[in-house]
Amino acid sequence: MFGDLFEEDDSSVSHNQYGKGKKLKTKAVEPPPPREFTNLSGIRNQGGTCYLNSLLQTLHFTPEFREALFSLGPEELGSLEDKDKPDAKVRIIPLELQRLFAQLLLLDQEAASTADLTDSFGWTSNEEMRQHDVQELNRILFSALETSLVGTSGHDLINRLYHGTIVNQIVCKECKNVSEKQEDFLDLTVAVKNVSGLEDALWNMYVEEEIFDSDNLYHCGTCDRLVKAAKEENSKPDVNLKDLQNEEEIDDPLMILKTILLQEESNLLPVDQLGQKLLKKIGISWNKKYRKQYGPLRKFLQLHSQTFLLSSDESTVRLLKNSTLQAEPDFQRNDQQIFKTLPSESPGFNGRTSCPHWFDINDSKVQPIKEKDIQQQFQGKESAYMLFYRKSQLQRPPEARGNPRYRVPRHLLSEMDAANIELQTKRAECDSTENNFELHLHLGPHYHFFNGALHPVGSQTESVWDLTFDKRKTLGDLRQSIFQLLEFWEGDMVLSVAKLLPAGLHVYQTLDGDSLTLSEIELADGEDIFVWNGVEVGGIQIPAGRDCEPLLLNVLHLATSSEGGKCQQLIEFPHVFPSNAEVGTVFTSLAIPGGVVLINNTESIGEKNWTTIPKVDLKKTFREQGLRNGSSILIRDSNHDNSLLAKQEKWITSMNEIDWLQVKNLCELESEEEQVRISATVNTVVFDIRIKAIQELKLMKELAENSCLRPIDRNGKLLCPVPDNYTLKEAGLKMGSSLGLCPGRAPTSSQLFLFFAVGSDVQPGTEMEIIVEETLSVRDCLKIMLEKSGLLGDAWHLRKMDWCYEAGEPLCDEDATLKELTICSGDTLLLIEGKLPPLGFLTVPIWWYQPQHPSGHWKSHQDRRNCTPSQGGIWRAISAQGAPGDVHAEVSLHYLGDIDISEDATLMELKSQAMTLPSFSEFVIPSPAFLRAWTVESKRPSRLLRADQQQLKEYKLGRRTEICLEPLQKEENLGPQDVLLRTQMRLPGERAYALPMNMVWDAARGWTAGSLRQRVADFYSLPVEKIEIAKYFPEKFEWLPISSWNQQITKRKKKKKQDNLQGAPYHLKDGDTIGVKNLLAEDDDDFSTVTDDIGKEKQKQLALGKRKSQEALRVQSSHVFSGAETPARPRGPEASLSIHVGSFR
């Protein structure tokens, strides 16, 4: 369902060891693929947005919602072109939703993108990579739409389409007085376990009567005493959730009869039974309800012959196939949904018609699914838990049927038409490029056969030619082209597929059929082709085919002493054998009289498992014995002992199944036992476990009313109390877990159990605890936490701890309740000093960053007086951009101060405001254009901020961003494809580098190693073949050489791709350090420095100290919690979901 999650799209090159130095073609950016045969468009996943995609597809397939949104024009919503204008009120979210729906309807592409829509939500890349609940998103999105559409004709769009009312009625059995309360809803929650269908679930939840009697009497206001009463809940949705339960449907006999017949397996019933089922369905017979208006039942069926088919004797009736009800639910999970589209409402593409069918929509992929497979698809843990229903009697106008352009605004129609033309043009261009592929021609006259394989005689330039050819042409065309290239060729020319093996080049099958295209004979991109006469090379007949494939094996045998005897030392050397040769030929090939042969097929050193080959099996081939390239063969005398061979034993361990929980006494009360094991199953209720633990620990019975069970994590930390009415499965507790029996009750359903701490540097287990109402405001919650912490003042704010156990985004809306901000029990809130800036503003810490350079950077006044700045506000760290060499291993970040600035301000305005800070007076900078801005992460410069006129909100900085400013000698204007790198030339004869130099590399033609090597060579005025370059990873003190010959072929696609330095393993970005080695002065593989050796040694010592401290912590924890598991970093709570909407009131 998910495809190959780990298949990378990074480009790569072929394993052609003779092809070094060849210029590789750059692959053009491919346009998105067109729609598949289903004619429906999917939505691309941004990393964790499958839940968003499922909801958007559901809304898109609801014509009433889609067309109501389309009815709002630019005069009400504004225009996306004006969204950056300061005074323009542009309702971005509905506009982007309109545009996305238009793309899903009309744009000929496999999948649409939601990037612009999530940008309008105010989401950063963090939100786009996180999973959330689709029901929560539905409510937040509807709320955001309602806010966005205030003051427009669509202000009631959500309320009009999805609103319903629940009526709670309590009827007094004595005086019959009715007490009634109404509640609005947009969706309903029902329990579906152990019920036959949705109607039963709705009946149980909202219709079934509840009786108040015995010990549960109701106080009647009219009678002014406790009486017996009955309670009912009735849902009155504007969109019907139950079939045939309103007067409109009961008055329509056609709809009722169709519904009854649809419920039959063959849509066939005897007419008498049809009448009986009608009576059971509506509680009244045909004659009493309909005969006066419509006549007898059989006459009614005859008059509607386009819907019903009566048998010749009029005894049975069948529902015609084209008369099905057009009302189907959309089944939806967090990441996938199933739709049934019908000709009347299918939003097809380009006017193509489609048949009624169920479709499985899974992000980008849309596939048909059989109706019988839906039940299997949505059962068990994959069960659908959010259902969208549509009124069965809603009819589409005739002009909407099969017309995807229906009600789409004109400006979007024009935009989609233009985009389709552009896509067609790009696909035509790409098709031409895609049909060209590269072949490596190995020329027979320049090869010789040696040691079982072919090897080039001279240079690779003479022996291997690269040819780019159109794979739609024939093999005869290829042969003719090669004849024209090789003017020296005489005689027959045979083309054979070859392959580079560890032993050398080996020839496989010969290519036949000059009339066949290269695609038809399945030649792959980057294929090796051997060009020869088909018989011999250099006078030697060449073995060809898979059977005689050469194997490169490691041969081991005892060395011969100078006296001619065998010594006790094993020698190892490589040797090539044909895979179809007998194993016994190893003796003749190596000129050994005889002996015993042992083989080993394992690859990992130190785990060799030698197997002796019986004499009978020496006639088997190497392939039959399972030998492959890299396998080892040991030859020894038959009378030699086995003392040189290591013996191994394998141990198998198993764990017994656990069916218990461990409960520890943490009530500060003495008991005979500190902990007990309680037998349980996944369906055991927590209350039973708690009571049994109190009994077995022999504690006071009073604890039954004032205690709770709290899980203990692997760190020994107490987690949120578990409600008594949960089962172990519902509470997410695993067998063998540790629980603490603690004083105090668990929070009620309307309360939250929260952890909180002061500051962002929180050690696990040091948090304080509090129980508050979920309706409490953020401001009141802050006051309570400050009071419990003993802190004063109002210069504090709250942040929610994220999953990395770090301070997340602040809780900005202090008037909002904890429930509205989706704060849940178990979340950790942090008290952070400092008031939050107003909405739309950022508080940005500014740092000064000045790496050492070979010459002429701006100096501070203090530098000119030979003084050093104060150390109070300086970070010193190994620079991510500076040199790692001995000359200058460190750079410093000097804190200048904080600035408050609007998100609408530009980067240039931020630099100008930073220059007004008092600490900035130490430095002499002519203008903001002489400053380069970086974000700061892990106390190091991280991301380069370019484009001075770009607004800060477009960088998606977030509220915790810190920025450092670097001085420049001259103004710079980096383009979007320019990459800023720090290059350093290695000093010959020394393990050190010269000072770093800034180099700008234009990566517009691709982030390839060849392009970067050429730029570095030009920068230092050296021949490209005389340099080697490597990227430095300061956190590991390691250098990774960058070579343009690292070639890989994907096994599945067998398609060569250009290497991309943005991907693994380089992840190249602005500010990275590139080491340069001049091969004219120094020719070795080492890029490291003395500082790297020292840094690695420090890291080893640090890791060793960390392991020791963890062991000490484990021992310490075992005294406190003897059953606690191995300590591990605690997992932080899940981040909340929100959509930011502007004010349109």
Automatic annotation (TrEMBL):
Disordered as annotated region, ranges: 1-42, 1101-1145
Alphabetical list of Gene3D superfamilies matching this protein: Cysteine proteinases (3.90.70.10)
PROSITE patterns reported in the protein's UniProt record: USP_1, USP_3
One of the GO BP terms on file: proteolysis
Ranges of Acidic residues composition bias in the record: 1-11
One Pfam family recorded for the sequence: UBL_USP40
Ranges of residues in domain USP: 41-392
Keywords, sorted A to Z: Hydrolase, Protease, Thiol protease, Ubl conjugation pathway
Catalytic activity: Thiol-dependent hydrolysis of ester, thioester, amide, peptide and isopeptide bonds formed by the C-terminal Gly of ubiquitin (a 76-residue protein attached to proteins as an intracellular targeting signal)
InterPro entries per record: Papain-like_cys_pep_sf, Peptidase_C19, Peptidase_C19_UCH, UBL_USP40, USP, USP_CS
Protein EC: 3.4.19.12
Highest taxon listed in the record's lineage: Eukaryota
UniProt record similarity statement: Belongs to the peptidase C19 family.
PANTHER family given in the database record: UBIQUITIN CARBOXYL-TERMINAL HYDROLASE (PTHR24006), UBIQUITIN CARBOXYL-TERMINAL HYDROLASE 40 (PTHR24006:SF842)
Record-given protein name: Ubiquitin carboxyl-terminal hydrolase 40
Gene name per UniProt: USP40
